Amino acid sequence: QVQLVESGGGLVQSGGSLRLSCTASGFAFGIGWFRQAPGKEREFVANILRDGTTFYVDAVKGRFTVSADSAENTVYLQMNSLAPEDTATYYCNQGPHWGQGTQVTVSS
Length: 108
What we know:
Blueprint: E1 4-7, E2 10-13, E3 18-24, E4 31-36, E5 43-48, E6 54-56, E7 64-69, E8 74-79, E9 88-94, E10 97-98, E11 102-107
Parallel strand pairs: 2-11
Antiparallel strand pairs: 1-3, 3-8, 4-5, 4-9, 5-6, 7-8, 9-10, 9-11
């Protein structure tokens, strides 16, 4: 049973930064980040492949960085220049498996 545990969410002012972590019970490759704002569908944010290739949704390019620490089975999402529209519950995903989510709230 794969388990994914997110941490690092919180309340931050516009322009601030947060770093989310997702620790997997197995390997850390192929983990993606998604987010869901109230009243909206869950959307893809970023992911990192086994070879280190990363993908981002256009809305976060240049502000968010996804990275992986294979020794710790952890994937990080560094979020800079946060804006109120980034407010959402952030989930990590690996195949059919989802974490419990961590709340990110950005105040204006």
